[in-house]
Amino acid sequence: MGDELSVVGKSVPRIDAIDKVTGRAKYGIDLKMGGMLYAKMLRSPYPHARVVKIDTTRAESHPNVRAVVTINEVPKVIGTIGKLRTEEAKKGLYIQDNIVRFIEDPVAAVAAEDEESAIEALSLIDVEYEQLPALFDPLQAMEEKTVKIHEGGNIAFHLLKEIGDIEQGFKEADYIFEDRFVTSKQKQCAMEPFSTCVADYGLDGRLTVHSSSQRPHVIKIYLAGALGLPVDKVRIIKPYTGGAFGGRDYLIHGLEVMCSVLSRKAGRPVKMSFTREEDFEATEARHPFILELKFGVTKDGILTAMDIKAVKDVGGYGPHAPGPLSNSMRKGFALYKCPNARFDGYAVYTNKSLCGAFRGYGNPQINFAQESLMDAVAEKLGIDPVELRLKNYRGLGEKDPLTADEVRSDGMKECLGKGATKFGWKEREKRKTTVGTRRRGAGMSCLLHTCGGRFSIPDPAAATVMFNSDGSVSLVTGAADDGQGNRTVFAQIAAEELGIPFEQVSLSDTDTEVTPFDSGTHGSRQTYVGGRTVKKAAAKAKAVLLEYASQRINVPADRLKIKNGVIYDVKNPEKGIRVSDLLRKLQFEDLDCGEQIIGVATGVAPSSPPIFGTNFVEVEVDIETGEVHIVKLVCAFDVGKAINPAHVEGQITGGELTGIGYALTEGLVTKEGRVLNNNFTDYRILRTCDVPEIDVIIVESNEPTGPFGAKGVGEATNAGTASAIANAIYDAVGVRVKELPITQEKILDGLDLMGRAETKRAP
Amino acid sequence: MGDELSVVGKSVPRIDAIDKVTGRAKYGIDLKMGGMLYAKMLRSPYPHARVVKIDTTRAESHPNVRAVVTINEVPKVIGTIGKLRTEEAKKGLYIQDNIVRFIEDPVAAVAAEDEESAIEALSLIDVEYEQLPALFDPLQAMEEKTVKIHEGGNIAFHLLKEIGDIEQGFKEADYIFEDRFVTSKQKQCAMEPFSTCVADYGLDGRLTVHSSSQRPHVIKIYLAGALGLPVDKVRIIKPYTGGAFGGRDYLIHGLEVMCSVLSRKAGRPVKMSFTREEDFEATEARHPFILELKFGVTKDGILTAMDIKAVKDVGGYGPHAPGPLSNSMRKGFALYKCPNARFDGYAVYTNKSLCGAFRGYGNPQINFAQESLMDAVAEKLGIDPVELRLKNYRGLGEKDPLTADEVRSDGMKECLGKGATKFGWKEREKRKTTVGTRRRGAGMSCLLHTCGGRFSIPDPAAATVMFNSDGSVSLVTGAADDGQGNRTVFAQIAAEELGIPFEQVSLSDTDTEVTPFDSGTHGSRQTYVGGRTVKKAAAKAKAVLLEYASQRINVPADRLKIKNGVIYDVKNPEKGIRVSDLLRKLQFEDLDCGEQIIGVATGVAPSSPPIFGTNFVEVEVDIETGEVHIVKLVCAFDVGKAINPAHVEGQITGGELTGIGYALTEGLVTKEGRVLNNNFTDYRILRTCDVPEIDVIIVESNEPTGPFGAKGVGEATNAGTASAIANAIYDAVGVRVKELPITQEKILDGLDLMGRAETKRAP
After folding, report:
1. B589 vs A233: CB contact, 8 Å cut-off?
2. A175-192, pLDDT tens digit by residue?
3. Is A427 exposed, middle or buried (0-12, 13-18, 19+ CB in 10 A)?
């Protein structure tokens, strides 16, 4: 009976696999309740307007309509969990006004006996708008003084931070590198649209909402505030969820609030589902950034100064105005141990659709800029790009410059080493071919992400482990699983910690009524923060169990271990007691005891450990068409410990695909505030045939604060793809495209410019 | 800010009142699920038979039938929680054979697309029976050696117990009193029949059962055993329940097991509901007893010896074979401090319908006999019946002769005093009137019941108190509320202990997946055992909260109290912090903390305290028709502390009505094993117009081990009614009817006998 792991580290199938593949799993759209009404939303046709008057009389007299709600009756709920920190900040969560700030901003909603009637009734609502001047360009909006999208002006958030001495840093530099980068408004494109809610406001004043939010426990508080209820009177139940990627963080704009008020008015359950078009136009997307970077570097390639200027377009509301801006600073500062750095960033309102959380949360933006510029540094100084990263990255024992959080696990060297080997980095020049119009090139980049929000936002987690009398375990957790599989990972962690078979752990539904507070699934936190909390709860339960076992079999508790459901003396493995026997005795045989073994853990993690990663990409670029073909992508991620390697690989592969889309094809296109590509014909995500060969390397550095050494991998996986691809394209054809996505046109433009430059030089 | 109670002791409305009165509350029969099938049961037409062959071919080929299950495939689950104490005992829970033991014993069940098809399909099942000799009389069954209803014979359980020295006791007596009493087979007659179940066996091997069981957590274990599943894979969800009274203890014979197997076979949810007739014929009723009592009494009326012989008819299975027999001994021994007592009791199988748990659980039977005989003692010795009880009852500081549990709270004197005064006991003779053929008389009796099963069966309880960040509380409990209102009482106890408003406590659904183990609602245990567990969980949460508060406001924790959601310094009440402010700081403001305050309590109660009660009844008996009219009923119960006086009054009134029915009208009538009165036309429960004036006196003795002094009242309330009524009838017309129910015929027979006796004497 050794100490090897029994289920952690194994690719066990997901606990919900059968439900999902057989179609028994119920997603939001599948929900039906007795007496349920169907709701639809009336949305603004204008990017910026005052709603002067709404006449719902005609809609209300539609024979199938049961309730109507308007913008005048409901608050918009805008903001992240940070707003719960003080009563004052919390007030700022709720905006109640009659202004619409982007095309498709909700104006009213109707609940009817069927969806067709609800749609009909929308056309019977008469709205009088006073159009207001609209702002679409963030740089213009920043300067604008007269037209104010929000009362406080158009700057949603300003972040200015300096570490070290930036001027001195540039003085110490031998070279200065500067450039400007622009990123796109990528949409999460989850398989299931972000937008079904069933609200049921009981006559007893209790509200039950079925919502696929990533943060059921947080939106419970938000909704309680919006509806003026005590928190215990709101219950959020999360159905199976078809992907989130940040898009289900908190509430969906207008959805749950309007649905709940409609239910309160109608006295019946109300269901509202957005179409895919509504999802594209009226739910959150990745913030587009404009980034100006300036690096000071010694001739040996050591960074001495980093100056970052950022403007982030948050759209009409900016629920995540500070977050991704701040995070791009944090990741920008943390990746390299540059002693002098400055970040000057603005989050700016425009009359465009919403931006919010999206996998990576500011990191893909800064990484694209930073790692493109690092590539230029390497080229200029003649240092191998891998070598340049190794010289500068912030590794083991170093501290984060902003949080002082120490790097306790560092797999960057291994990522770079294994990645380069697998990719054949040293031999890349040999593979450079010219086949017709196609030019081959290779690029790489590095990245650092972190797990959880320990130093930036409230990040509580909790879990309850309850032993059943046969030794099986019910694990009660409110940690949302959006499809990534953290429920399976939790069961693995609990089983491992408790020494019982994986099959003997069941997980509760994600239901805020009965699960302890978990702040939600975001920031790659569930495996790390959630997992360590589950482990802690299990350890507490185990400690009580072993104490009882110690009394029963007369062996000191610290000499007892559990394996395969048997508690045994490590010094005399023959001596032991089955967990099930002990529990039966405690709960049933001993009438004086009757104790159920329960372990509860709540709190935050001690750290927000870095996860390191690297991407190596080989591309072929067609210089006639600008078409980019990814020949090969090798990526390596230091995940601490892969609790479930198949899940980790799935996360990485999925993230890389999002990263490739970010690099080459994706981004909402707007004109005068209107989203032009609101469907999968016009918005191009990768199709199966677009997917290149992806080699995934899992590196395990054993994070000491993580459960069994694990860190969270989700968000890192798409943070460094675009930069590596951009660098590979540059390597192939000499064109450095600084604006995402890197379309064929931009490459051709670049080639064209080069041609002109060469033409200029030629004579 | 004094120490007076804020919500305990107040008749707050039930937390589920609005749901219930508006019809939104969903009972078992209301449940519907997508793809749900409807099941019906095929039942034995014979009281005792071997099922030789079942051919389900024709039923299975019915176009709407989706699954068929037979007696050959499923175990019968027979037994109480005591069977979970050892692995060996647990095996005895499951009987799998092809014998049917009473008319209507399940033989097969069918699940079809609709109920009509299921009923049709039943007639397509071909069953070949081999009839076996049937036994209907328990005394005959005891002696019978050849015909065995179960393998081990017809005696299900034998209990022989002696305390003191019974022979010596009789020697010390001046008088010996002896008599024989027979009780009836009363049916619980809950408003909602005992018999709807929806089972949903998922493809992932997890079984969810919606069942109104009084013991969701216990039947979870039972069902797991019956289906060969780990306990964590079975989930019981309890819908709103329309009364239980013991009839929903554990599983309903055949219901949940067959329904679950049908669902497993069909791969779809299956609903089965019994008709009222099936409820009468095939679910459990109160055990009929034959009791022979012999008392030794001094001339001063002091009991010196009690010899009790009991034969209990358990019907075909005897799931509660030991329980009510043992309990009648326990209550018989405990009520009076008679030093010498013997109980010799047999539980005997007959081929009749099931008997099981029913409010009082053996106490109404023994009380009817014991208190009838005590009445004879009082008459014979010329001692006032009240005085006789005061001389003999086991009061404060005395110990239970079997468990050594000390009487820590004793309201018997107050019950007798206040009851007698309110009733006008001393003036009763003055009210004796003779109006035409109607004769008036008064009678009284005493009773003792206990709360919970601390010394007889495993009796664990558990509760979890979780604070929300606004100071409201979610209380997670698996304690079944069958309609009596313990959920409201728990909310009161939690609110009182925590010092927060009652409205800010919400209760979880009764769902075994997420609630900690509670052994169920039985034995008047929820207010006492459940309530003290809730209080303990709340106290644990409060202790953590006050510790944090102490750190924040710099006042020692032991000087802090909470009132109206404010934590304050008792020495300086101006100094304090709002609970909601503190919690917000802990969970959200302080990024280093993030702790949710959670209190968990599990275990058993230290005692099973006695609840005392008395009934005073005045009747008019018509000597021509034998009709009994109850003029007035005054009852007094020592409930320790009435957490919710309106609930207590409701419990008492309801229990008294059951007691009156037990005394005068109720009881299943069988002929050759067939229930003749299987409906409310033939089985007479009290109608509104039959309900007499009932004066309820609540006595509060403050039980030190109870939550805020409370004890449980439910079961005591019908234990002493029949004896008091019998005594009043005797007082009115001189007829002592010793067999329940006391029908008009029996009174007329008695009068007739007296008449003949007088006639005999006359000449």
Report:
1. no
2. 999 999 999 999 999 999
3. exposed
What SS3 class is residue A462?
Answer: strand
Cβ within 8 Å of A, B 22-61: 22, 24, 32, 34
* Dihedral angle over CA of A570, A571, A576, A582, nearest 10: -60
Question: Checking DSSP bridges between strand B155-163 and strand B207-211, what pairing results, if any?
Answer: unpaired
Predicted confidence at residue B758, as pLDDT, reads: 64
- Identity of the residue numbered A203: L
**Is A466 in Cβ contact with B517 (below 8 Å)?**
yes
- Find, among B468, B413, B492, the residue nearest to B446 by Cα: B413
Nearest to A39 by CA among A285, A278, A246: A278
Residues with Cβ < 8 Å from B28, sequence gap 6 or more? B192, B196, B197, B198, B210, B211, B212, B239, B241, B273
Instruction: Could you list the beta-strand ranges (E) of A530-627.
Output: 560-563, 566-569, 572-578, 598-603, 610-622
What is the pLDDT confidence band of residue A754, given thresholds at 50, 70 and 90? Answer: confident
pLDDT over 60 (residue B762): no
Residue recorded with tokens 């209190």: B599
ipTM of this predicted structure: 0.95
Judge whether B146 and B327 are in contact, CB under 8 Å. Answer: no
- Residues across chain A: 763
CB A226 within 8 A of CB A257: yes
Residue whose entry in the numeric block shows the structure tokens 């001047």: A133
Shortest CA gap B326–chain A (Å): 17
User: Are B682 and B676 within 8 A, CB to CB?
Assistant: yes
Which two structure tokens, joined as six digits, stand for B282? 């095939």
In B298-425, at which residue ranges do the beta strands (DSSP E only) sit?
303-315, 341-349
Contact A604 B593 (CB under 8 A): yes
Tokens of B678: 């299987």
Residue whose pair of structure tokens reads 């429960």 in the numeric block: B685
Binned at pLDDT 50, 70 and 90, residue A2 comes out as: very low
CA angle A150-A155-A158, nearest 5°? Answer: 140
Alpha helices in A621-710 (DSSP H): 645-664
H-helix or E-strand containing B450? strand B438-450
A563 touches chain B (CB under 8 A): no
B1: pLDDT strictly greater than 90: no
DSSP code for A207: E
C-beta atoms surrounding A406 within 10 Å: 14
Nearest to A232 among B16, B474, B595 (CB): B474
Nearest CA in chain B to A597: B602
Q: In this structure, are residues A614 and A445 in contact, taking their beta carbons and an 8 Å threshold?
A: yes
